[in-house]
Amino acid sequence: MMDFDRFYGHLLRGELPEAMTMLKSDPDQSDLCQQYHARFIQCESEPPLEGIPGKVLCAYQKYYRAVFYLRHDRQQSADILAQDLCRCLGASSEGLTLDALEEGPVATAFSSAGYHFLGGKTGGFYGPYVWKTTEEVCYTVELPEGEQCYTVKLLDGFVSRSWLDYLSLGKIGTGGWTDGDGIINCVRSAYDLDSESFTVSLLKHEAQHVMDLRRWPEMTPEDLEYRAKLVELVYTNSRNLLLPFLHEAGSNDQTNGHSLAAERIVAGFKEKLGISAEALKAIPLSTIQPVALDLFRESTPPLSARDTL
Questions:
Q1: Each residue of 120-163: pLDDT tens digit?
Q2: Sign of CA dihedral 238, 230, 124, 156
Q3: How far apart, in whole angstroms, are the C-alpha atoms of residue 1 and residue 178?
Q4: In this structure, what are the phi and psi dihedrals at residue 218, rounded to the nearest 5 degrees?
Q5: Residue 82: what pLDDT?
Q6: How far apart are CA 88 and CA 128, in angstroms?
Q7: Which residues does 207 contact at the CB level (< 8 Å), separation at least 6?
Q8: What is the pTM of this model?
Q9: What residues contact residue 160 under an 8 Å CB cut-off, 6+ apart?
Q10: How far is CA 170 from CA 46, 159, 175, 262, 299, in A?
Q11: How crowded is residue 86: how many other Cβ atoms within 10 Å of its Cβ?
């Protein structure tokens, strides 16, 4: 039987060939295997939009294949993506970085077509978020270090949700994020707004990012993710989130803050409890929550560090 936790763990770490090898080894997954073959070997993906925006998204799909399936050099692939975007836009790439292209002419092209566009990197790789509508709501969120109100933007009508959504054929992907403005962005279709997945894994996770970035704006992505994932473990009452963290850990990519944070959490629990990673799968929530809170408190920078920022 297919171990989908392991399969999606490969995708979370950007290990597309390993994930596809798993599919090939399971006769029951022949249909899914064919979908991956069509997308990444035969390159049969259709553009989700017409005109220039559709051509731009095809350029990103070409980039995903290069960096994740063919494993081409990351910087070289980004340079080729920038050239492809310029061709799509009929613009010159002279003097423009990929980030500048995304923030300027690419974002403008989508805005003209009636869409919001957010570029930049997720987990060390480029991949845009493109959606149609935004609704603002305020939520009061309790965290280990206090309660506070946060503005949440509910985003809907997505046509692109970055590389993980594309690699997983829409099965998993980023459900939300926070920017430097302290606002939490939520992919509306990814959540039941009454579920722990929303109230804990999105709201509390992202609110912790906001709180930490306000106090320590230079905190690394790994440290931010480590503390936010621990907050999830502290407040979750119905799920053993150590299981997905175990599968997410172990990436060789030192730019993937999520995977590095998951690996630190696994190591911290092993040390605190004196057990193996395999044994972590069976520990109860009543054990997970206090250990997670201890690790969170130990990770908080000292007052002297706060005062210097």
A1: 999 899 999 999 999 999 999 999 999 999 999 999 999 999 99
A2: positive
A3: 37
A4: -95, 5
A5: 95
A6: 15
A7: 141, 143, 148, 150, 178, 184
A8: 0.83
A9: 48, 57, 60, 127, 128, 129, 130, 166
A10: 14, 11, 12, 23, 34
A11: 19
Q: Report how far residue 258's alpha carbon sits from residue 13's, in angstroms, rounded to the nearest whole number.
A: 9
**HEC-encoded secondary structure of 246-293:** HHHCCCCCCCCHHHHHHHHHHHHHHHHHCCCCCHHHHCCHHHHHHHHH
Read off the pLDDT band of 255 (50, 70, 90).
low
d(CA 153, CA 300): 28
What pairing do the DSSP bridges indicate for beta strands 160-161 and 146-156? unpaired
User: How far apart, in Å, are the Cα atoms of 298 and each of 57, 137, 197, 302, 304?
Assistant: 43, 33, 25, 9, 15
Which residue's entry shows tokens 């053993």? Answer: 240
Tokens of 42: 């035969």
β-pairing verdict for 121-122 and 184-187: unpaired
Taking the C-alpha atoms of residue 215 and residue 221, their distance in angstroms, rounded to an integer, is: 14
User: How distant is the alpha carbon of residue 185 from its chain centre?
Assistant: 13
